[in-house]
Amino acid sequence: MSIMWIKNQAKWIIVGAAVLVAFGLIMMDRQGAYRSGFHGNYVGSVDGEELQTGAFQQDLQNYIRSEEQKTGKAPDGQQLAQARDNLFQTKVVGIIIQKQFKAYQLHPSVEEMQAYLVNSPREVAYNIARYEGPDRVPSFLRDSTFDPSRFQSWLLQDSVYDRIGMRVLEDQLKTSVIPQLQLQQLLRCQVHRTDLEEEFALETRENLGRIVFYQVPFDAFPVPLSKFSDADLKAHFEANPDSFYHHDEAVSLKYVRLPIRPSPKDSALMRDFAAELKQRAATGEKFADLAKSYSNDPGSADSGGRLGGFQPRTTWVAEFSQAAFNLEPGQISDPVLTQFGYHIILMNAKSKKGDSVDVSHILLKITAGTETTDSLSDLAEKIKNEAEKSGLEAAAKDAGLLVQTTPVFEKGVSPSLPAYLQGVQSFAFSAHEKKAKISDVLQNEEGIYLFERDKHFDKGRDFERAREAIARDLARKEQMELVRKEIETDQPQITALTDPLPPTIGKATLDSSRLIPVESYVPGFGYASGELLKAFHQKQGEWGSVLWTSNAAVIAKLVESQPGDPAAKAQKAHMAVVQGDVQMVSDVFKEWIAGLPKTVKVENNLDMMYRN
Question: Which of 227, 214, 231 shows the shortest CA–CA distance to 477?
């Protein structure tokens, strides 16, 4: 099978490969972000094959530089953690895929590589520009003067492949791109749809309908989870032996939190910096440039601090409004303190009546300095030492701190805390820390934490672990019964209605859709709902029977229908079967990629490496 045919059928795979790289190679923590004293040479392993720390860091560092150049700002802690996780998963998948290439003996032929290059002039031009410079791209490869015949003749010259941009691209084709195309073709051979399945898929995409409907959401009848007794919960648990199974271990942790709050000294330092920025703006620096570089207001910094044009006094908090309305056009305020931090305000313009103003601002949030955080860290270390002797409850009581407990959370899922905290997963699940009774002192931007082990649950069925899920299940059943009674009461009135329709009938509320396909989102129905398909098959102009979606009971009327040409859809369905359903193969391939890490033994040391 020629690579050109494959490309015409499966261009998505190239996009998929690019996405894997894009979301993997994201943002690097700075060198100081390493946990002090960590001496790991590898960030993890795949079936014993180690992922070296140096290479991992270099990939991240290269990307974070490009991100900071684009945004002008460093990513926050949670973004960095997500970036590391994405890169780690990408590298794990990469190792496994390379093994799959070897197992299936996938090797690109010269003909396949040549065909790929002929059909990828933009990619060739991009690689030359990236590795050799934009001026080195031949004129016949530029968009405005592209010449296919000259390009193909150029590719036949041996000297072309001595260029660094072409050598890099050739290596990518050999090691990754074409083997992935070949692997996708192998998967495609195992994926088949019947004419009937394709007709159904086409119907959800191409049949259009417009409905009006009344819905009674399940949440219209709140049911408190606390109403169910232990006997109710246990009975439901035992009656559903195939439910409430957990595929990974989980824990809950006890913890104390020392909130990081700025001191009066921190506030004074920030006020001085705000005054410095005002002086810089007053002596010639552009206010917009200062806002882009220094403002902590994400909603206005990128636009140079502008706050949306003319606004009335009531738009902002009192301190800000008073300072803003006292300015004349072109004036810059002294630092103004509000609950959000210090503001420097530039008056752009005032309305003629003086009842609205157009202003820009620079917001400087007041954050705790190192002196403040260091003193809290010292206190946390003292509590840790005491907790290791007498337990966290006793140590916290002596320090006047409240002990809290996290909800149960699984491996790989962050516990519910005010902000993301690196290191919790490692303490909870890592083999390196299983013997530790009390965690290390962990810190994020809003607090310093100490954790103690509380409950541990192995994978499988466990009543205590499933307690809340059981209660939610029982509550939903009770809600559905209450909704059933309500909709049965409302149904006779609804089906007798004519225009104009009232906004409510009992607890049922009126809603409608545009002319849309079944695969669309509709409130009350959700995305690509089978119940919406049923509504589209009702007799036009008449109210149908009750439809039960995952969120509500619905009674709908089909107002307009455009089913399309049956013969044309049948022909499309048949051609999709003959040529292969690219979207379905794409979905299968994505699922296969996502499942690869579950087929091997993966060791992940990220959470242990990156702390504070």
Answer: 227
Q: List, in order of start, the domains of the chain with CATH numbers.
A: 3-189+599-609 (no CATH), 208-239+466-562 (no CATH), 248-261+370-458 (3.10.50), 264-364 (3.10.50.40)
- Res. 379 pLDDT band, cuts 50 70 90: very high
The band of 23, judged by pLDDT with boundaries at 50, 70 and 90, is very low
CA-based nearest residue to 337, from 261, 267, 259, 262:
267
Contacts by 472-478 with C-beta closer than 8 Å and gap 24+?
472/225, 473/236, 473/243, 474/228, 474/232, 474/233, 474/236, 475/223, 475/224, 475/225, 475/228, 476/218, 478/221, 478/223
Give the three-class secondary structure for 177: helix
Q: How far apart are CA 186 and CA 177, in angstroms?
A: 15
Residue recorded with tokens 């009702």:
538
Q: Hey, which residues does 212 pair with through a beta bridge?
A: 512, 557
Helix (H, G, I), strand (E, B), or coil: what is residue 333? Answer: coil
314-323: long-range pairs with CB below 8 Å, 24+: 320/345, 320/361
Indicate the DSSP class of residue 610: B
Q: How confident is the model at residue 581 (pLDDT cuts 50, 70, 90)?
A: low
pLDDT, average across residues 444-459: 94
- Residue 24, pLDDT score: 38
The answer to whether the beta carbons of residues 13 and 20 sit under 8 Å apart is no
3-class state of residue 176 by DSSP: helix
**Tokens describing residue 484:** 């059933």
pLDDT digits (tens, 9 = 90+) for 158-180: 999 999 999 999 999 998 899 98
- A 10 A CB-CB count for 307 gives 22
Place of tokens 């199974």: 245
The mean of the pLDDT values for the chain is 87
* Burial letters 539-563, b for 16+ CB under 10 A, else e: eeeebbebbebeebbbbbbbeebee
With contact defined as beta carbons under 8 Å apart, do 180 and 592 qualify?
no
Least confident interval from 29-33, 225-229, 604-608: 29-33
Confidence of residue 183 (pLDDT cuts 50, 70, 90): confident
- Which ranges constitute the DSSP H helices of 34-188? 53-71, 77-103, 110-118, 121-132, 148-155, 164-172, 178-188
pLDDT digit string, tens, across residues 310-349: 999 999 999 999 999 999 999 999 999 999 999 999 999 9
Residue 500, preceding peptide bond in cis (omega within 30° of 0): yes
**Contacts of range 540-548, beta carbons closer than 8 Å, 24 or more positions apart:** 543/494, 543/495, 543/497, 546/487, 546/488, 546/491, 548/480
Q: Give the pLDDT confidence of 118-131 residue by residue, as tens digits.
A: 999 999 999 999 88
Q: Residues 414, 428: contact at Cβ < 8 Å?
A: no
Q: Is residue 452 classed as helix, strand or coil in its secondary structure?
A: strand
